[in-house]
Each structure stands twice: as structure tokens, then as C-alpha cells.
Amino acid sequence: MKFNLKYLPIVIGATFALGTIAGSFMNAPASDQLLAKNYSKTKLNKLIDFINTEYVDSVNTDSIVNLTVDNILSKLDPHSVYIPPSEQAEVAESMKGDFVGIGINFYMYKDSVAIIKPIENGPSAKAGLKSGDRILFAGKTKLYGRRLPSDSLFSKLKGIQGSEIELTVFRKSEKKKLKFKVKRDIIPIKSVDASIVIGEKTGYIKINRFAETTFNEFKTGLTRLKQKGIQSLVIDLRDNGGGYMEEAIAIADEFLKDKQLIVFTKSKNGSIEKTYATKAGSFETGKVYVLINENSASASEILAGAIQDNDRGTIVGRRSFGKGLVQREMDFNDGSAVRLTVARYYTPTGRSIQKPYKKGNEEYFKESEARVKTGELYAKDSIKVADSLKFKTPKGKIVYGGGGIVPDVFVPIEAEHGNENVAYLLQTGIVGHFVFEELDKNRNAFARLSFSEFLAKMKSSDAYFKKFKNYILMTGLDLKLEKTKPLVDRYITAEFARQLYGELYYYDVILKDDAMIKTILNPKK
């Protein structure tokens, strides 16, 4: 099936819309008041019972209830949502920060479960499984030749901590079947992808979401970087759709002085809750930079807003998504949940960064598409700000409300001649699949190379760039890659580094020519 290129930003936008369901929400149970009965609820219950007992045909009333809930929430705001049981379990697991499994990164390649890379020190790595292995059987369950969906595969590989599963694999490099007994264990789902030193005295921490473990992961990384003598820190919140606001607040506290305002919320009844920094900050004097883009939302915006409004650091990048609503979650017995907007949050200067949603959910999530058309992703002057929503920081800097965090230092999207589709494409899974398939052809070609030898090998030829062009053509995408060749080469090399050497090597490659990092490390005089 051909993939129409003009819909690429829409597909990515829709994916992001689902991602921001996590948003900024409070990790707390809903009030018992939500359970109070009233006439409307009685009417709805009587109708469902009437359909159940009297309707002429058999009807799944659960599905009717789900549609009713969806319809009710669609009349509210874009972030008040119903999450069905099938999705809620996965969302909850992601936000919890771990699960019990065998510890592999995998995907369905053709008709088999291909291991991209066993997680370092995880159960599969300890048992001896390797990148490129195909899992043929999990116990007695056949996994190949079936095109199983990911959730079905996960259920076969997950289990109780300490339980054992026998895996039958085919190892292509040895051309034989092997059996491994793997003992399931707790597998962390990292929300902090990297904490490394870039430049001479600058640390870098990448946060992909705000889960239950994010602050602890961040604090561990920051402590390690401080031991290495960093004097500046870059916090990368690009494409971070949010999560628990408490985690973002705890991170902001590391940089702000005692009693500085971090954020405040205002509910329907006008009650205001203010959250201040404490004396516990461990990086209150070094330089701080926060990277944001059009996909940085909610909890990411709370952290960026606290840093900007307190004149604590520099916000670098492009205008953020613009979500200033806080949700509270209510769980149901069937495993589903509702996230209901219960408050608005405001940055320390008093601005709401929530963008308008009166035109409906579809227009709301397509707003980021409009930024391409207006040129906002390429020039700061194209960002629309309202003078009526102008605020001042303590040092007199002008900041704006009404739709996202406007950066202090603008960096246009990494794409030449307006071809933002290439930049977006490179951040999808397509590069990872291409690299896996290339490695799968001959892993021995890289087996004994040091990292520096690997980099030299990648720079010495255009072979993989040409192969990638053909690869995306075969998927139905007709993109002109020549004008963005340096960007494409960087992403291909970085993904090879990740699959061969590990996550930190990916960032070692990807950040060297990153436009926002270069702006920080090499500012114009």
C-alpha cells in the first residue's frame, strides 16, 4: 500500500495527540463526590437496563456505555478522555516505570520475532540471547509465521517475577536452533534516556516522559554529572508529551531557590494551590538550558515555565505544544479509566499557556500542522503572540501566555528548504528497522570494530545512504533526501551505534551536529 507523503505530519500529529493523553495529571485518586448519584445518572442506568432486558436484538451494552462516555467527554476539552482497559494497562505500566518480562527490544520482521537488542544486564542478556536472534517458540507456543500483534507477543513473554520460560531461537550467524531458559525479572522502562557530558563542562540529560521514577532517574544522572565537574546543564524535553506534574515539579526544585514559586493551579471553584521550591535544590547556581519543541507538552511546559519565569535559565528551541490543563484519573472495575480535567495550571508569572480548543478536538490537535504553513517552525517572527497576554519575569523579561512556551533562543526545525517531512520521518521507527535489517545481513562486518573504527567506516562510504533511499521508496514514500543528506547520515549512523554499542553511543553521535546543542555550545558572538 502506498503511503501518501502529504499525510505524514498528520499521522505524526495524531500519534502525538494520543501521547499527550498522559499530559499533566495528578497522581491521586478521584474524589468520592464523583460517585454521587443524581437524576441524569439514574436516567442513563435505567436506559441501559431497559436495552439489556427488552431490546429485540442482542446488544453489547458495555460498548454502548463506552460510546456514551466518549461522547460525554468529547463535549468537554481535548484532554478529558476515556481510556479502555486494553490501553489503560499499557499506559499505567509505562507511567509506573517497570514491568516483569524477559528484557528484549524486538519487532516483527517478516514473519518472525526478531531481537533488536537484549536489554543490558537483563534476563535475556544473562541467559545468552543476542541481537538478531529469532524467537521461534515461547515454551510450546509457536511465535513465527503468525504475524502476531505486539500486545499478544508481550503477553507470551511477560509473567510473574522469578518464573522461567524456555525460548527456542534461530541464530542466523550460526545457522542453528538454540534453546535458552530465561528467568523473568523486573525490567525498568526508562524515562531518562541519557545523562552524559557534552562539551567541556556541560552536562546533558534527556527526559522522554514524566513517570513515577523520573525524578529518581534524573537525580541519579545529575549526581553523576556533578561528580564529573559540570558547570552547565542541558535538559532535553523535545517530544516529551508530559506525565505526572509532581515529577516535573521535583526536578524544577533542583534548580530554584527556597520559596521560589514553581507552579500554581486554579480549580473551577476558584481555589488556588501554589507549589514552591524548597531548600533541597542541588544545582541552584550553574547555568541551565531547557530544550523544547512543538511536541513538548504539559509537565514539560511546567518545568520549562518554572525555569523561564524565575529567570533561572534559557529556553532553547521552538514554541511548545500549549497544554495548561491538569487531569485527575478515576479507575473503573473493568480496568478502564477516565482522565478528567480538574484544574488549569499557571506558570510563576501567572500565565496560562493553554492554547484554544473551542473549535473542537480535531482542530486542536491539527494546530501544530498550521505552524508549518505559517512558517513558525522556521522563523521566530512567525510566532503569533498576543500583547494582552504579556507578562514580566522578576528581571523584566517579557514572556507570553495563550499557547505554549515561547523560547528565549529560537532554533528552526532541522530540515533544509522546508522539507520538514524528512526531519519527522527520521524520528520514527523506520530508521531502526532499516538498520536492523542491514545488520542482519552481515553482523560480522562490525563485530570487532572499536567505536572510532565504526565511525570511520560509516564516514567512508555513501552505501547506507543509498540503501536507505531505496528502503523508503519500497515502503511507498517518495522523499527527496539529497538536500538533507547530512541529517539522514547522522540518524543512520546514530541508530547503527545504538544497536551495536548501546543507547549512550546513539546520543554521542546524534548530538554532535544537533542544531540546538550547537547553539548552546557555540553561541554567536
Automatic annotation (TrEMBL):
It comes from the Bacteria. Pfam families: PDZ_2, Peptidase_S41. GO terms for molecular function: endopeptidase activity; serine-type peptidase activity. Residues 1-22 form the signal peptide. Transmembrane segments: none annotated. InterPro entries: ClpP/crotonase-like_dom_sf, PDZ, PDZ_sf, Peptidase_S41A, Tail-specific_protease. Keywords: Hydrolase, Protease, Serine protease, Signal. One of its GO terms (cellular component) is outer membrane-bounded periplasmic space. Residues 98-173 form the PDZ domain. Belongs to the peptidase S41A family. This is S41 family peptidase. It comes from Flavobacterium potami.
